[in-house]
Each structure stands twice: as structure tokens, then as C-alpha cells.
């Protein structure tokens, strides 16, 4: 099996230098003074060290299984065997002998041909004096874009006189001083890893160099092999907060983990670029990368080239560089900078002049001097655009507030006498600083691209780039125009359209404004609010005379300051814009010692020690730290697999479902199962939990489908459109998503024509809509007017200047009111709010010989009727005002603010239709969009008084979708006033389960969306319950219980012990503390869970199938199946049962739902297809139940107990139409107190909010949630 196990820290280790014979010749020339300066020698690979390193003498019996997993793609590398001088040795037949060679298996995707030059990028020079060892870093990229990392240490070994030899080999001799030596030969050790452990491997290789100082009669290869063997046995930690600690002697080496599965490993000092460049220059370099320029870094320090380049790559995460990345170019590779495509490369500063003169259109960045310049440019070379000014300003302020100097941190600390303590203290400081730098750069990326989502259509995967550009400030548009054309941005768009919850999405979500959350709830056209307008008036980027940008028009002019670049960093200052995220505590796990020689028994002992250490850590860890527990299980499973203990490894991986499923190694487990010996597979199948795990993993493989990752830019259509194509095009344009509204728009645009729309009509309509949108955004009201309006109001329509009885001016329409913007000195005169309108008429008034069309509006709050001579605009304004009036009345009657937003959309569509068609039938066409006005006139829908008084509010979880979605389950979770909360979860929440595993979470204090649509599986969700303050359990028809962490709002755990649909979950509370949870499935299985450990306490099977619901009372479980009611002990022993066939066989075929009312010894049930309720005596189920008939009810669908009431959700009739009805029944009197008609479709879900409110959710025809007050 190939590529199954995650590779260890070491992939391969290579020794590079010059062969002994060539070194001898060169040193002899120097000692005999034949030459003064030798030209650089060509380095060669002298030794290659590839895992595994178990001695061949030992039987590999203990590693047979693990070797099968640890194979990687390899190829043969031919390495010369060193012998005594063999040149010019001839066979008897006169042919020259060729050197013997040896085939060595090496990783396939590592280029060993160019490696020697990269290990000595400046050339291999024999020196006459000892030089200090130095380290640099390499990055290799294969054709698939996968990166491999190298850490290279160059060190020098002395050769005495260069001519002494022993058995044909140069003789190395240890001396106290270097005076006896005239020549020093450089060697390089290169450690290659799949992971960017720059600092860790630098420390490791530094420890090795201590042992490679001049010594006598010891083989260098043995030392390096021992070193490589240690690294090959060190696993890489899974993502999270667990780091691995290894004693390499004399240093303690830390191998950090990545923060989450999608984050990169960060094992370097992220602040180094901030020491080399001013913040403005950092932004310029980031701009060059984002616009995919051809970039070359220069430095006299080879190590800095890679580290600085890698830092800039990490600054842009999660955006990824998609092009050539070669941070170090050797002398032989300088021609790479002539490549015509985008790249990022690094050269020694000595080559700066040559590169700048020979290559065109390069961005040349000197790390040493802090210069950013252009090489010679062609005539059409465009200047690098400015960074968006607001994002740049925030970035600069936050960078300047950082403390970048460790020495300043030490001033107040006592001196440490322990080197390891000093090392850990420095590492902790660096980690904290790295986190701060990451937060700053990520916030910068979010600030730049936050509003991209407003121009995405997720259903059709379209990005409207032109409209996005129009919403940018004029000074920022050149930047976005360039960035939007790049491969990097294209990949970023794919992730957004796939709704990937990466670092960008998490930060964007956590920093959403209240307005952003409101916009998620109402799919209405965007305009500037009064608050935004007020800030815009004094924003320099909108003033022609001022423009605050970070500009880079001429790179040659950018020079570093004479003063040190980072004097500002000597002082810490707090900025208002700083975003403080909670820091995560790091846990160190110490890897056991590895002993040599590396015999198989010692490897086995190492694995055993490793597992014992992990087991001890697991046993002492508290179960509430499940994330750390998961990391221990993962590592123990990995080591168990290396040891060949497959069943133990599977068991550990299976535990990840209950601790943190994000790190579950699906591919590894699948390959384990595929290659498992029949005997092992048979043993696994005998263990139910492993059999279930194997089944799930193999089913996932069959279910894998190719992710649709295409991205389209919106383009106007070029052919005629039928209705379906028109719907798609309008949705892609972002104008409106609702299908019913688009159908009405289609009817409006095709009045008097065939039922198809030509490209010109669509273009005229689209352009008019966008022009009107742009004009509305440019409306700049004076402060005196803004003061009269609410902060969230927007001006959506302005008339031409007209004469009114209030004066001359323009009529302005917001979502709340009409007002007159008077001319001359701009002033505000309120006309009316839509709620206060009493009548609207379109009439004419006589003026001389003319009849002037006039709009009259009568308001409840004003005696005088408003009149405006709107002339040609009169009919359109008449339609618009009536639609807004009707929409406002609907919104007030139904307590649903979405109606006014929908009316507003209809009004703006009317305006665009009239502007686009320009014909005699335009007003008639626009009237097709008068949806609410027609509803009011044609079918007066009076909301019953009881409904209106009880209904408090309505919200729409399907806002922004193309069609409504059924609400299957509702859950209210109360807020917790805890001063220690850091995640904003102190507010109450409403959880809505929609179709296909979607969950929407609302802030129940403001009824705004807190978490927009995260998925738990893809099946229908059946139940939700808050188990404790930190977790919500969700049952699904896929037989899985999903556990949501309410702090992180993520699903990292699953319970998969059921074999059929999970139907219900209940929690047992003892002393107000959740102690145990019970879940039931359709096949009659009931499982009792330990809430803290998630282990199964008990499991039992009821004698009946079709188990739909359970309740807990008096230490007994009340179970409702399709055919009977059961009372059982918590151990599953049935105490009493009532069979439906024996009691209600003539009137009821199957129970649909039930509710226990223990205070009154009542059990309430309903039956499939019935409009009757049956109330049973809980003390004796054999008694005949009392029947309650519900008037105008087709079927009872759900019920809950609230105080002394039973609330019943149903499908019923109201005013002759099918509606969702709620019946409120007094449990004592068993009479219907209220009939509530608040839904247009079946009531599918009910939940109580602290017995003060009841929330109801409806079916897919409406898909809304109603909030009702409880008396």
C-alpha cells in the first residue's frame, strides 16, 4: 500500500560534498602552491539515508504490517560507491573500468539532480581557514503543487596538508587547534521533510553538528544515519494544541501542530519581515503577490530568502500562491528569472545588478536594505496598484502596536540558569507574537475581501465582478481590477462558493456587524443606510480633493528611511481596531527516548513506550478536554498501526468520533481495511463498534462525488430566453432570487409579446437596475435631513423635482416613509409613514388649459392631504406607494418584516421595468409586480384577532434561498450570564433544522442570524436537545447523533451506535445537572449515554419497532411506538403497555406523536391522519382515553407542554384555505382556548422558550418561524 500513513518528520537525509579523490587533488594543489584560488568544485551526493533504518541482521517480523503502510512513491537513485582511486584503471582488454554503482530507493518526487547545487547555492569552496557552520532552507514543489521542505547545514572538516592518506582515503585527524590544517573541506547535510519544520529541524541539525566536529576513527555516515533514524521514527502531531517534545541532546526539540486541518504548520518567526520592511512596504509586497507579479527577493543571507518568502505566503493564508515558488536560486539556476509567467524566487544579493539589467518587468526586493524596485520595464508595464486604504490604515496601526523585540520582554524577568527554560520562554514569546501577526494579516485579508460574498450567487456559482468593482472606492478600484484577474483570487472564490469554513470564513463571521446579520435575513436591494451616508460624507476616500491610499506608482522611488525601519516597534500601543482572539493553551507531549543500534527489538520497545506514555496521558486526562483526548487517541492509533496492532489502532481511531472527528484519518483507515489480513478482519467483524466503523468508512468511499468547483463571471445573455432560462439569468445577476417574484417579472417584461425575452430587453432592464442602484448609492443627504431618519433607513427612490402643496422638491422613499427633500436650502418635510397611509389616489388637476397628473396621499396623522404634480411619473409612483402601503400592512398584520422588504423589491422592479421598456404599456407591465396590493384588493386576508394578539414576530430561516425550506425541528437554548464567556454565547439562541442536514442559528435576543447554515450530514434531522451549556445533540435519519459545540459552533463529534433513524433524545437531570442522556431509534433501540465521556452506559431493545418518541418520568421511560405506548425501566424492562389495536383499532391506525403531562397524570396522543386528540390516564393506560375533537383540522403533526397548556401543531383550514394551525388547549379543562392561524403551510415543529414564548416552524410552502406569546 502506498501513501497510507502520514510520513514521519524525516523523508530523506542526504550528505553532499566532493568525493575524497577530488578533495585530495584540490588540497594537494593548494599545499603545493600550484594555485592561489581554486574555482568552486561541483558538489555531489555522497550518501543518502532513507527510512526504514532497522539493521538488516535483525528479523523484521515485528514490523511486517507497518512496512506495508509506510511505503511512499519511490524511484531508484544511482549513487557511486567510493573506492580507492579507480580512475584510469583498465581491464585486460584495454577498456576503462567504470565505477561501481549502488541503487538506492528514494522518494519519487524529490529532485536529486539539482539538490547538490541548492545545498551549495554559492558554490563549494575549499578554504584555508575554518568557517562557522551555517544553515539555510529549501522548498521543493512537484508538478501537482505539493511542497517538500529542506534544511541544509554547511559545515567544514579539516584535511591535514591535503595529501596524507590512509588506505587511499584522506586521513582526518582531531587536533586542539586548527593551526596544523591548511585546508577545510565543506560538506552539507540536507534533511528533507514533508512538513515545514524550519525551526525544529534547524535545532535538530544543530545537535547533529555538535557530534560531527573533528573526530578520529569514527564514520560520519554512522552518525548521520543514527540522526536520520531518530527523525524517521517521530510522527507528526495531528492538528490542534498538542505539540511533540523530543530530546535530541543537548536541545529539547518541539514539533508544533497546525492549528486546524486546513491551516499550515507554522514553525518560523513570522515577525522577521516586519523587522526588514516598514509596514507600508510589507503592504506593497503583499500587493505584488496578490496581483501575481514576477517577484525576486535578494539577500546576502541564504537563510533569510526562504524564511521571508515563506512568511509572506503565510501572511496571505487562506489565499494560496498558485505559481512557481523557488525561494533560493543557485548560480546555475539564474536563468529561471527569465521565465515569462508569474513566479516568486530568491537570489543572492551579488546577482542583483545582473538580474535587474538582464530581465524585464521584475519586482526586485532587497531584504538587506529594505528596497523595492522595478527591473527595466517595457512600455506597457502598469504600475502596481494601491492597497485599499481603509484596510491598509488598519494594518499599519496594528503592526505598529506590536512588540517585535524579545530583549524588551526580558527586562522585567529574572535571569534563568536553565538553558531549556530559556529556550521554552523564548519559544512561548515567539508563539504569542506569531499568533498576533497571524491575526493582523488575516484581518487584513478579511477587510479586503469581506464584501465579495455580497456579489456571489451560490446556486449557479456566479461572481458578478463588474458590480463588485462598482461598489469599491474609486482609489481602490485599480487594486481590485488586477486582483480579480488572478488564479489566486479564482481559487479563493471557489472556497467561498463551496461555503468552506476556513480561517477567512470564521473571522468574517465572528466580526460581522449587526447590519450584516440583518442583511442575511432580508434579501432586499442594498443601499446606503443613513449611518453609512453620514460616515461617507466625511470619509477622505470619497472626496475628490483627498485620497488616502498606499500608492506604489514608481517603485524606483521607494527607499528606506535613514532611521531604523522599526523604531515604532519599541513601544507598545493599543489600537482601537485590534481584534483580540482567545489564546489557546498548548500541551507538550514528550516522545520517549530512542536507543541504538536500531534493532527491531528496540524499535518495538520504542513503540511500546510511546503507547504506554499515551495511555497514561489518556487515563489522567479529564473527559471535558475532549479535543486533547482526541489527539492522544490519534497518536496512539498511529503508533499502534506502526506496531502492527491493527484492531487496537482501529479502536483508537473509532474514539475520534466521540472526541474530535475533524482529525479522523479516513483514507488511512480505509486502506487499513482494504489490506487487513482475513484473520484480523474476522476479529474486527466480531466487535460491533469496529464493524460499524468499517462499514461507515467503506460506504463513504462509495458516496464520494466530485465537488463542483467551477466559477463563472456574470455575463449578459446573447440569446432569447424562455421562463426557466430567464429565472436562472436573473438569479445569476443578483437582482432577486425568489422564483415567484422572477415569474412575475417575466410576465411584466413580456406584456404584449411572445413569452420569451430578447437579449436587448434583458440588457436594458439590467442596466437600468444597476444604474438606479448606483445613483441611489450616490445620494448624499445633508446632515439636517439625516437627523430625521432612522440609522438603518435607506433612500431607495427619488422623484424628479416636482411642485407639491408642501413646497418644491424631490419625493424620497425609504423602507419606512415618504418625505420631501426641499430645494434651495435642502430641508426635510415628512409626507407620511407607510403605516399611517389612509388612502392613495392618482388624479389630475387643472392648470390653465392643461390637466396635470397628480398623486394624492391621505395620512392618518395629518389633516391636510399631500398633493404632488408628478406628471409623467405619477402612475408609477401611484403603483409604488400602494404596493409599499399594502406590504407594510401585511408586515404589521402578520408581524413579519420580510413583507415590507419584499414589497420594496417589487417597487424597485416596477421602476426598472418602466425605465427599460419605454412603451405605452409600461405601467400595465409594472402592475404585474403589484403583488401585495392585489392581495389586499382581491383576497382580503384578515388576520384573526386572537392570532394577531398572540403573534409576536416572524422570521425566515430560508432568506436568501431560491425557495423556502421546511423547518423540521426547532430548539431554543437560554442565554447564560457568565462573565467568563469569551465566545459571545451568553445570548439565547434559536436553532432551526432545515432540509438535508442544514442548521440555521438565530440570536434569540435580536432575531438576527448568528450562524448561517452549517451542515450536519445530508439526511433529514429529527430531534435536537441541549445536553449542557456547551453542547447540543442533533439526531438524524442517517442513524447518527451529531454533537455541536456551542462555543465554537462546530460539529466535531458524532455518536454512531444506532442502526436506524434516530427519532428522539432526552436528558435526565439530577439536582439541575445533566447526568445521563437517552436516545431512541426507529428500530426500537434505546441507548443511555454518559454525557461527559460519551460512552454507552446501557443499551436495550424494546419489543416493538417504529419507536418514534420517548419521555422520562419518575425514573421510568415512556415510549411511543407506532402501535403502542410502553412504560419501561431505565434498564429496558417493560412494566406496562397499551396496544393501539386493543383500544382504538376502529378509529386510529398508528400513533403520530405523544406528550406526557405528569403533573396531571395525563398522556396526550395523536394518530396518523386524525384530527382527534386522545388523553390517557397515566396511572392506568388500560382506561378508555378522553377524545378532544379539533375543528377545521386535517392532521395533528406535533405537540408540546407549556405551563398548564398543550400546544398542538397541525395542518388545518382557515377561510376555506389549507393553513398551518396551532391549537392551545387547557390541560385541566381539556378545552381549546385559542386557534392560531399564523402559517401558510403545515406546522411541523414546536418548541418553548422559557415558557414565555412558543416558536412554531412551517413546511416547505412557507418555511417560516412564528414567535407566540404564552399567557
UniProtKB/TrEMBL annotation:
Comp. bias (Basic residues): 71-83
Alphabetically ordered keywords of this record: Cytoplasm, Guanine-nucleotide releasing factor, Phosphoprotein, Repeat, WD repeat
Gene3D superfamilies according to UniProt: 3.30.450.200, 3.40.50.11500, YVTN repeat-like/Quinoprotein amine dehydrogenase (2.130.10.10)
One Pfam family this sequence matches: DENN
Xref: SMART domains: dDENN, DENN, WD40
GO BP of this protein: regulation of Rab protein signal transduction
Biased composition (Polar residues): 60-70
Localization (cell): Cytoplasm
Region named Disordered: 59-103
Alphabetized InterPro entries for the sequence: cDENN_dom, dDENN_dom, DENN_C, DENN_Domain_GEFs, Quinoprotein_ADH-like_sf, TPR_DENND3, Tripartite_DENN, uDENN_dom
Major location (coarse): cytoplasm
One annotated GO molecular function: guanyl-nucleotide exchange factor activity
Quaternary state and interactors: Forms oligomers. Interacts with 6 of the 7 known isoforms of 14-3-3 proteins.
UniProt protein name: DENN domain-containing protein 3
Amino acid at each position: 500500500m502506498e501513501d497510507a500513513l502520514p510520513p514521519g518528520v524525516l523523508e530523506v537525509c542526504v550528505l553532499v560534498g566532493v568525493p575524497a579523490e577530488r578533495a585530495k587533488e584540490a588540497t594537494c594543489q593548494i599545499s603545493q602552491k600550484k594555485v592561489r584560488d581554486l574555482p568552486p568544485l561541483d558538489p555531489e551526493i555522497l550518501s543518502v539515508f532513507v527510512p526504514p533504518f532497522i539493521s538488516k541482521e535483525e528479523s523484521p517480523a515485528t514490523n511486517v504490517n507497518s512496512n506495508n503502510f509506510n511505503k511512499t512513491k519511490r524511484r531508484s537513485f544511482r549513487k557511486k560507491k567510493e573506492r580507492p582511486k579507480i580512475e584510469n584503471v583498465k581491464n585486460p582488454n584495454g577498456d576503462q573500468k567504470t565505477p561501481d554503482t549502488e541503487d538506492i530507493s528514494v522518494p519519487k518526487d524529490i529532485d536529486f539532480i539539482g539538490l547538490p547545487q541548492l545545498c551549495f547555492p554559492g558554490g563549494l569552496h575549499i578554504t584555508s581557514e575554518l568557517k562557522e557552520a551555517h544553515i539555510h532552507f529549501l522548498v521543493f514543489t512537484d508538478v501537482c503543487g505539493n511542497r517538500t521542505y529542506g534544511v541544509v547545514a554547511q559545515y567544514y572538516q579539516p584535511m591535514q596538508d591535503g595529501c596524507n592518506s590512509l588506505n587511499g582515503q584522506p586521513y582526518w585527524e582531531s587536533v586542539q587547534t586548527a593551526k596544523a590544517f591548511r585546508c577545510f573541506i565543506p560538506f552539507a547535510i540536507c534533511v528533507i521533510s514533508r512538513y515545514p519544520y524550519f525551526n525544529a529541524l534547524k535545532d535538530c541539525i544543530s545537535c547533529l553538528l555538535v557530534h560531527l566536529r573533528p573526530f578520529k576513527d569514527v564514520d560520519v555516515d554512522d552518525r548521520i544515519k543514527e540522526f536520520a533514524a531518530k527523525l524517521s521514527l517521530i510522527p507528526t502531531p495531528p492538528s490542534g494544541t498538542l505539540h511533540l517534545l523530543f530530546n535530541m541532546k543537548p536541545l529539547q526539540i518541539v514539533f508544533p501542530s497546525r492549528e486546524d486541518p486546513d491551516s499550515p504548520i507554522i514553525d518560523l518567526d513570522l515577525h522577521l519581515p516586519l523587522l526588514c520592511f516598514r509596514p507600508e512596504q510589507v503592504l506593497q509586497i503583499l500587493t505584488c503577490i496578490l496581483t501575481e507579479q514576477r517577484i525576486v527577493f535578494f539577500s546576502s543571507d541564504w537563510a533569510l530568502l526562504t524564511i521571508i518568502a515563506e512568511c509572506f505566503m503565510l501572511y496571505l493564508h487562506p489565499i494560496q500562491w498558485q505559481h512557481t515558488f523557488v525561494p533560493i536560486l543557485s548560480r546555475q539556476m539564474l536563468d529561471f528569472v527569465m521565465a515569462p509567467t508569474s513566479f516568486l524566487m530568491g537570489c543572492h544579493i551579488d546577482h542583483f545588478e545582473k538580474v535587474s539589467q538582464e530581465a524585464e518587468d521584475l519586482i526586485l526586493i532587497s531584504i538587506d536594505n529594505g528596497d523595492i524596485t522595478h527591473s527595466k520595464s517595457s512600455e506597457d508595464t502598469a504600475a502596481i496598484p494601491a492597497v485599499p486604504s481603509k484596510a491598509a490604515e488598519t494594518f499599519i496601526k496594528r503592526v505598529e502596536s506590536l512588540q517585535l523585540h524579545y530583549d524588551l520582554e526580558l527586562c522585567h524577568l529574572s535571569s534563568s540558569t536553565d538553558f531549556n527554560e530559556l529556550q521554552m520562554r523564548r519559544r512561548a514569546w515567539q508563539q504569542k507574537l506569531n499568533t498576533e501577526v497571524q491575526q493582523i494579516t488575516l484581518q487584513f485579508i478579511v477587510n479586503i475581501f469581506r464584501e465579495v460574498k455580497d456579489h456571489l450567487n451560490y446556486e449557479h456559482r456566479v461572481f458578478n465582478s463588474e458590480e463588485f468593482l462598482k461598489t469599491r472606492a474609486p482609489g481602490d478600484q485599480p487594486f481590485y481590477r488586477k486582483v480579480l484577474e488572478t488564479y489566486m483570487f479564482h481559487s479563493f472564490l471557489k472556497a467561498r462558493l463551496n461555503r468552506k469554513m476556513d480561517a477567512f470564513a470564521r473571522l468574517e463571521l465572528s466580526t460581522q456587524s449587526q447590519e450584516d446579520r440583518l442583511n442575511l435575513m432580508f434579501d432586499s436591494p442594498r443601499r446606503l443606510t443613513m449611518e453609512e451616508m453620514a460616515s461617507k460624507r466625511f470619509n477622505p476616500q470619497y472626496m475628490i480633493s483627498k485620497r488616502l491610499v498606499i500608492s506604489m506608482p514608481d517603485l524606483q522611488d521607494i527607499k528606506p528611511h535613514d532611521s531604523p525601519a522599526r523604531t515604532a516597534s519599541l513601544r507598545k500601543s493599543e489600537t482601537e481596531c485590534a481584534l483580540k482572539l482567545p489564546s489557546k493553551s498548548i500541551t507538550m507531549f514528550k516522545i520517549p527516548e530512542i536507543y541504538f543500534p536500531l534493532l527491531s527489538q528496540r524499535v518495538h520497545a520504542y513503540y511500546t513506550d510511546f503507547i504506554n506514555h499515551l495511555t497514561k496521558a489518556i487515563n489522567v486526562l479529564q473527559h471535558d478536554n475532549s479535543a486533547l483526548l482526541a489527539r492522544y487517541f490519534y497518536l496512539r492509533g498511529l503508533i499502534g498501526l506502526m506496531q502492527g496492532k491493527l484492531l487496537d489502532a482501529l479502536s483508537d481511531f473509532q474514539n475520534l468520533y466521540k472526541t474530535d472527528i475533524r482529525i479522523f484519518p479516513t483514507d488511512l483507515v480505509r486502506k487499513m481495511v482494504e489490506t487487513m489480513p482475513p484473520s484480523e478482519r474476522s476479529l474486527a467483524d466480531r466487535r460491533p463498534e469496529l464493524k460499524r466503523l468499517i462499514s461507515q468508512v467503506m460506504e463513504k468511499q462509495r458516496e464520494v462525488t466530485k465537488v463542483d468547483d467551477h466559477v463563472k463571471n456574470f455575463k449578459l445573455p446573447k440569446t432569447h430566453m424562455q421562463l426557466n432560462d430567464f429565472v436562472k439569468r436573473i438569479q445569476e445577476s443578483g437582482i432577486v432570487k425568489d422564483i415567484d417574484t422572477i415569474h412575475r417579472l417575466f410576465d411584466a417584461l413580456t406584456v404584449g409579446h411572445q413569452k420569451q425575452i430578447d437579449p436587448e430587453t434583458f440588457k436594458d432592464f439590467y442596466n437600468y437596475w444597476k444604474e438606479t442602484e448606483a445613483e441611489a448609492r450616490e445620494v448624499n443627504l445633508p446632515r439636517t435631513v439625516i437627523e430625521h431618519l432612522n440609522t438603518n433607513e435607506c433612500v431607495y427612490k427619488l422623484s424628479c423635482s416636482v411642485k407639491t402643496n408642501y413646497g418644491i422638491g424631490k419625493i424620497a422613499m425609504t423602507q419606512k416613509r415618504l418625505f420631501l427633500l426641499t430645494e434651495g436650502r435642502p430641508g426635510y418635510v415628512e409626507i407620511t409613514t407607510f403605516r399611517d397611509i389612509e388612502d392613495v389616489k392618482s388624479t389630475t388637476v387643472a392648470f390653465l388649459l392643461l390637466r396635470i397628473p397628480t398623486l394624492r396621499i391621505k395620512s392618518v396623522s395629518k389633516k391636510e392631504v399631500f398633493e404632488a404634480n408628478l406628471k409623467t411619473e405619477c402612475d408609477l409612483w401611484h403603483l409604488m406607494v400602494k404596493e409599499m402601503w399594502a406590504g407594510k400592512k401585511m408586515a404589521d398584520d402578520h408581524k413579519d418584516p420580510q413583507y415590507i422588504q419584499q414589497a420594496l423589491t417589487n417597487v424597485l422592479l416596477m421602476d426598472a421595468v418602466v425605465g427599460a421598456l419605454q412603451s405605452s404599456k409600461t405601467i400595465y407591465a409594472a402592475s404585474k409586480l403589484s403583488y401585495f396590493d392585489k392581495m389586499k384588493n382581491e383576497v382580503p386576508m384578515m388576520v384573526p384577532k386572537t392570532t394577531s394578539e398572540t403573534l409576536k414576530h416572524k422570521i425566515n430561516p430560508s432568506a436568501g434561498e431560491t425557495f423556502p425550506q421546511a423547518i423540521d425541528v426547532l430548539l431554543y437554548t437560554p442565554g447564560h450570564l457568565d462573565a467568563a464567556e469569551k465566545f459571545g454565547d451568553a445570548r439565547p439562541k434559536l436553532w432551526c433544522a432545515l432540509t438535508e442536514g442544514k442548521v440555521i442559528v438565530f440570536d434569540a435576543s435580536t432575531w438576527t442570524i448568528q450562524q448561517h447554515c452549517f451542515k450536519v450530514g445530508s439526511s433529514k434531522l429529527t430531534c435536537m436537545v441541549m445536553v449542557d451549556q456547551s453542547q447540543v445533540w442533533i439526531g438524524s435519519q442517517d442513524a447518527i447523533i451529531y454533537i455541536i459545540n456551542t462555543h465554537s459552533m462546530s460539529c466535531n463529534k458524532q455518536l454512531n451506535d444506532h442502526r436506524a433513524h434516530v427519532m428522539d433524545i432526552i436528558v435526565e437531570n439530577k439536582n439541575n445537572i445533566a447526568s445521563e442522556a437517552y436516545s431512541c431509534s426507529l428500530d426500537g433501540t434505546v441507548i443511555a449515554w454518559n454525557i461527559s465521556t460519551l460512552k454507552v452506559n446501557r443499551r436495550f431493545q424494546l419489543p416493538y419497532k417504529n419507536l418514534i418518541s420517548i419521555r422520562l418520568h419518575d425514573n421510568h421511560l415512556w415510549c411511543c411506538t407506532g402501535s403502542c405506548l410502553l412504560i419501561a425501566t431505565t434498564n429496558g424492562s417493560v412494566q406496562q403497555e397499551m396496544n393501539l389495536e386493543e383500544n382504538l383499532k376502529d378509529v386510529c391506525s398508528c400513533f403520530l406523536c405523544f406528550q406526557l403531562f405528569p403533573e396531571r397524570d395525563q398522556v396526550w396522543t395523536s394518530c396518523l391522519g386524525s384530527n382527534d386528540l386522545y388523553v390517557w390516564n397515566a396511572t392506568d393506560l388500560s382506561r378508555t382515553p378522553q377524545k378532544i375533537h379539533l375543528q377545521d383540522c386535517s392532521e395533528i403533526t406535533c405537540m408540546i407542554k407549556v405551563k398548564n397548556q398543550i400546544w398542538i401543531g397541525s395542518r388545518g383550514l382557515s377561510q376555506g384555505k389549507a393553513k398551518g394551525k396551532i391549537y392551545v388547549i387547557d390541560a385541566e379543562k381539556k378545552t381549546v382556548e385559542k386557534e392560531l392561524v399564523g402559517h401558510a403551510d403545515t406546522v411541523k415543529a414546536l418548541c418553548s422558550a422559557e415558557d414565555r414564548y412558543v416558536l412554531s416552524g412551517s413546511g416547505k410552502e412557507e418555511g417560516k418561524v412564528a414567535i407566540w406569546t404564552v399567557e
